[in-house]
Amino acid sequence: MDMSRPHPSLSRRRTLAAVTGLAAGALLPAGAARAASAPTREPAPGAAATFTNPVIWQDFADIDVIRVGNTYYASASTMHYSPGAPVLRSYDLVNWEIAGHSVPVLDFGAKYDLNGARGYVRGIWASSLAYRPSNRTFYWLGQIDFARTHVYTATTVEGPWNRLTTISTPYYDAGLLVDSDDTLYVAYGNTTISVAQLSPDGSGQVRTQQVFTAPASVGTLEGSRFYKINGRYYIFLTRPANGQYVLQSSGGPFGPYTMRQVLLDLRGPIPGGGVPHQGGLVQTASGAWYYMAFVDAYPGGRMPVLAPVTWTPDGWPVVTLVNGAWGTSYPSPAVPAPPRQITPMTGVDTFDGTTLNPRWEWNHNPDNSKWSAGNGLTLRTATVTNDLYWARNTLTHRIQGPTSTATVQLDHSAMRDGDRAGLALLRDSSAWIGLKRDGGATRVVMVTGLTMDGNWNTTGTGTEVASAPVSGGRIWLRAAADIRPGAARPGTFSFSTDGVTFTRLGPAFTMGNDWRFFMGYRFALFNHATQALGGAVRVTRFELSVP
Question: Quick one: DSSP state of residue 12?
Fold first, then answer.
């Protein structure tokens, strides 16, 4: 996982310790080469002739993308959010939905429960997703806290996902390869790149060997993706946050490897955003190749972008550019008509089912005894604190770019004195609109100045800057976010007592665009106590809309 930093020569590991802590490719496989030489398939009826980058205007970093049959899947980093490692699904590489999560709970220590410690900027970093045809099983593999590696498996991406094993070697920024003979290999490392062979069932390590060291002229290389194409082995590597390189071996998975630069300081497709990098390669059923990378685009996060790839005669991939840059648009991939419409990442959620839509992720693990869904989302107070960063059961939703608005309908009739509930723009610098109940009276307030330092310790618990009295038990809260990259951007808050007429509350909140928290801003629903547990609120409707 790249550090999205302005100094690409620094490794993420050293940076975290300090603060807390394609001119490239391969020959097509024989079958794919035959498919590629066949007439190009036209886009499916009704499909757009071109697509526009970013293909996902939400925060999905460190993408690993694969194809199984005619369906594409991708996994992404989620750090301290739970469940972790979302699995995205697409039928055309352009339109994506969230199907599930590979890591159901971050059971890696009490800090991921906000129990005496916190896991901010830890947890699920760059990891790998693979499919093993021999047993029709999906594998997710990732290291946690530089200490060990966990492997999860499922027969469908919706789950259930179960932990297969824990391996003592921490496979940093790993790429998992299912070889043509069904052997499992892992490429991993930072600057020093290694390859490990796993046991036949994937439960342990058979051997590991260093295979490459990045030259000083390149600096940091990480974010491994591991491929076997036409008998050759490839390790796709990022130089954060401005380059991409690839290693090639014709001598087997343990090398020797030669290196070629894929891209460096390439102009990206998002105005104000960074250089496309990291991510991975994927081939369509008809033989076409694509590179799915991400662009640093804070304050919103890191946005996936897509570009076609061609190959040199000697087996190195080349990104197709438009006027010397990663294209804002390209012809749509030629794929079969999708079997169904994907589920959009925006729209309305009324929490009718007993489980949450996979668009939602908690800030750290929730206390499952303190929330329920069905006829709305009920959030009972789970923590007594005046610090939102310590409050359990804060539920988050990615912001849709370039601008979007979240509107929440909230029943607050069961709040108790000292309770705080509302809708936040959540990151290491946060603000919120919501309700304060004190002395039997309820007010709607706008609070800003919630801050963390570079060690992710709280430095500000917030200051109330605007308020208005409210009566009754129902209110609508709204947060509008501008996450166009390149500058600090405004977030604004408003409320309504009828769901029709909204009143602005408080000044604009400036959303920072520093990279070091990694995850972008999110909308967040919260309810915590400052005096005693026992209160509750019910979210009857959440709508994420775009202009």
Answer: H
